[in-house]
Design brief:
The protein is an all-alpha fold and 178 residues long. The chain contains seven helices and no strands.
Length: 178
């Protein structure tokens, strides 16, 4: 098959989801981001702890909008963020003087690390990149970034996903743990 022929695709778009699915996805995303945001903006606004990062928005799409996806499962959610944060901080510490290089190494190595640990979670790529291109507050966290916000934020969103995704009879989360 030619290179360009592969780009035509070989199937059709999946069907749309029900209104109920849309509503439960909205509720989950609202509550999940609210929980993490509440800690950040209400409890720790005067401290150095940062609880919310942009990649959590992408995680919300997966764990509340596509909870059956292999990339939305607990191992992937938490492990993907933690592995990627560790890689991102390490890349910044080693190559931070060259942000373009540190960012490229961080994202590529995070993908490899997630593959190797069976924790592939696309928002993890953003978590790694944020460790490199983030603010001075993110950089000041150093390896604490792996725990706060990456690990604990993902765990908070997981707890919300376990509750919200199991309320309606049409949803079940997770599909698996390990």
């Amino acid at each position: 098959m030619s290179f360009f022929k592969k780009m035509q695709g070989n199937t059709y778009s999946p069907p749309g989801v029900s209104l109920s699915e849309i509503v439960w996805s909205w509720i989950g995303a609202f509550l999940g981001i609210s929980a993490v945001g509440f800690l950040h903006y209400i409890l720790f606004v005067d401290g150095n702890l940062i609880y919310i990062i942009g990649s959590f928005g992408a995680s919300a799409v997966l764990i509340y909008g596509a909870p059956r996806s292999p990339m939305a499962q607990p191992r992937n959610l938490v492990g993907g963020h933690v592995v990627s944060a560790l890689v991102g901080v390490t890349a910044f510490k080693l190559l931070g003087g060259n942000p373009w290089l540190a960012g490229s190494v961080a994202v590529a190595t995070a993908i490899a690390g997630m593959h190797a640990t069976k924790t592939l979670h696309p928002p993890g790529g953003a978590t790694a990149l944020i460790a490199v291109i983030g603010s001075k507050d993110i950089h000041a966290l150093g390896f604490l970034y792996v725990i706060v916000p990456s690990g604990l934020g993902a765990l908070m969103m997981l707890v919300v996903a376990l509750i919200v995704n199991n309320i309606p009879g049409s949803r079940q989360y997770p599909e698996y743990w390990i």
